[in-house]
Design goal:
Chain lengths: ~450, ~160
């Protein structure tokens, strides 16, 4: 396999890569100058649409198309929210971009705001990124001083303010309407759609919410062109007229049981095996892998036999996973009991369910109670069916919740139990030899905590 | 009002400086809570009342938002250092549960607790977004990477 020359991460290891001086020395803000000097907002929209860029935050919605949902000739204001609430377990690509190359993100953000006629952008960053916070704030300050932000940017007549807004450690704020509610100062309860944010978003005005890596891609597309972007990645499936393809470079976060965890840039469509072997130095300690999360814990699980799965937008779904998600691959080695894995997943979602929709609030908390019971040696075979019943019935796909958090909670349950049922049954029988066939109601047993 | 005011003039000025950024005062809720929390290491009810007054909201509206996050303590200040031990999957796979247990034992607190000397509040955190450095601990603004038990001990002993 030919080594891919990083683009998004090209400068992160260079000296002072987070400063404006260094960024300009790499050719930074030339794209913005080109846009403001010679392109209309519509030109930029068409360019991004033509590139086939799909949002990098998890859902993979085509970015240019999202922009065109804004009402035409709106008198304003139109708001732009940059989603830097990255909190999906296993995911840290946005953090690296913001810490090591914040100007790349900001240049992409300014171009995106120009394309969407937004005059105010809120950069919503999760609380847990103190270094990224400092670096992005410093970069924004540099931009104001250099005339890349503020009134009449570079004499173009276009004006833009970017304001950083700090989250308070809630996963749900990464959901775009949860983010908007949080920004507005309320509990981050996702909104029922429609109306979509493009029509009625922040402060009841048309709003675009894009991910940090998406903004960085926009900057690269302006510099290098839509054809360049489309030359990387995976073409649309000719048998699926609705597949927009998976174009461009992608930041893959590799963690868990590999020798060299890290954030690696590769063309969309690299397989799990290639990622682990060519970038991650193989499974750690000479062990074998048992499973891997394909794109953040919400996406479910691939078994080791499925590691030839290409990590493009369509790949993981073919193996029963929810999708590519954030492209965060977490490798689980052969020594890990699947009971422990699923317990950890259920613990996360029970903690992070926002509580608005009953199926999610109750489903995630009862799933954790059952996993506590199983892990504590009081599990029953029936519990596996109950967990699957929850998994099959919570989320926007079965149509019982407002947002996709519950789908993300459901997928690890469904994949882990359906793909590793024998192991779960064996664990339950071994740890609860007298009671595993029990079907009568039993008390919840908080036998052990998570630790 | 009979109760002594909690927000200093400085805090009030800092909060008001956020007003021009947003089309509504309610949007300054989180920035205001962070400003108070940074100074007081908690946001007592009286501060909620005063923030609400500044933002032209009812105290219940601010309290509603505050309690949603589970981030802002209200009864007593957290320790001078607040440390989150990540327990999500990437860290879990590399020993986070054992690390949290070890650190709690060393510090003599339960998860979420504050040491008697007020030096440390030790909590579990959900994914800190530093999975390549698992298991990791965020202590105030410092990320501790690939933390071993020995490093955790040294960290706790170094607290002042």
């Amino acid at each position: 396999m030919a080594e891919f020359e990083p683009v998004l991460l090209a400068n992160i290891h260079k000296d002072d890569s987070h400063t404006l001086r260094a960024y300009e020395s790499f050719g930074g803000y030339a794209g913005l100058k080109k846009v403001l000097g010679s392109m209309s907002a519509n030109d930029v929209k068409e360019l991004v649409k033509g590139s086939g860029l799909r949002g990098r935050g998890g859902a993979g919605f085509p970015t240019g198309l999202k922009w065109t949902f804004l009402p035409k000739d709106h008198p304003g204001p139109i708001y732009f929210c940059l989603n830097a609430d990255e909190s999906e377990p296993g995911t840290f690509n946005n953090r690296i971009l913001m810490e090591e190359d914040p100007h790349q993100v900001i240049e992409g953000l300014i171009i995106s705001c120009f394309a969407t006629a937004a005059s105010t952008a809120y950069f919503y960053m999760r609380y847990e990124y103190p270094l990224a916070w400092k670096r992005v704030q410093a970069a924004v300050d540099e931009c104001y001083a250099a005339g890349y932000l503020g009134k009449n940017i570079l004499g173009s007549g276009y004006s833009l303010d970017i304001f950083l807004h700090r989250g308070a450690a809630a996963y749900i704020c990464g959901e775009e309407t949860g983010l908007i509610e949080s920004l507005e100062g309320r509990r981050a309860w996702p909104r029922i759609k429609p109306p979509f944010p493009a029509v009625e978003g922040a402060f009841r005005k048309p709003t675009v919410v894009n991910n940090v890596e998406t903004a960085a891609c926009v900057k690269q597309i302006v510099d290098r062109g839509a054809d360049w972007f489309r030359s990387i990645g995976v073409q649309p499936d000719p048998n699926n007229p609705r597949d927009p393809g998976s174009f461009g470079p992608k930041l893959y976060c590799l963690s868990g049981h590999v020798e060299k965890p890290g954030c690696y840039e590769a063309p969309l469509g690299i397989t799990v095996n290639e990622l682990i072997d060519n970038y991650g130095g193989g499974v750690w300690k000479g062990r074998k892998a048992k499973a891997a999360i394909p794109g953040g814990i919400s996406m479910g699980l691939l078994t080791a036999d499925e590691f030839d799965c290409p990590l493009d937008f369509a790949g993981p779904g073919k193996h029963g996973c929810l999708g590519l998600g954030t492209a965060a691959v977490v490798v689980v080695d052969e020594t890990v009991p699947m009971v422990d894995f699923l317990h950890n997943s259920c613990q996360f979602f029970a903690h992070e369910s926002c509580g608005q929709c009953t199926p999610c609030r109750e489903g995630t908390s009862w799933a954790l109670k059952m996993m506590n019971r199983i892990k504590g040696g009081k599990g029953r075979l029936k519990d596996l069916d109950l967990l699957l019943e929850i998994g099959d019935n919570i989320g926007i796909i079965p149509g019982t919740t407002i947002c996709g958090l519950a789908d993300g909670a459901a997928w690890p349950m469904k994949n882990a139990i359906r793909k590793f049922r024998g192991e779960f049954e064996e664990y339950i029988k071994r740890t609860n030899p007298d009671g595993y066939m029990e079907t009568h109601p039993v008390p919840v047993l908080e036998i052990i905590g998570a630790h | 009002m009979t109760t002594d005011r909690i927000l200093t003039d400085e805090m009030v000025a800092e909060i008001k400086a956020f007003f021009p950024r947003y089309p509504s005062k309610q949007a300054v809720t989180l920035p205001a809570l962070h400003i108070v929390n940074e100074r007081l290491r908690h946001v007592p009810l009286q501060a909620v009342v005063e923030v609400a007054e500044l933002l032209e909201l009812s105290p219940a509206q601010v309290q509603d938002t505050l309690t949603f996050y589970g981030f802002f303590k209200q009864d007593e200040p957290h320790g001078r250092v607040r440390a989150w031990v990540c327990r999500s999957i990437s860290c879990h796979l590399r020993g986070a549960d054992e690390l949290l247990e070890h650190m709690c034992h060393k510090a003599g607190v339960e998860p979420g607790g504050t040491t008697a000397d007020g030096k440390l509040t030790l909590e579990f955190g959900e994914c800190l977004g530093a999975c390549e450095y698992a298991p990791c601990v965020l202590a105030n603004e410092t990320l501790h990477k690939c933390v071993t038990n020995d490093q955790a001990d040294a960290f706790i002993e170094s607290l002042e």
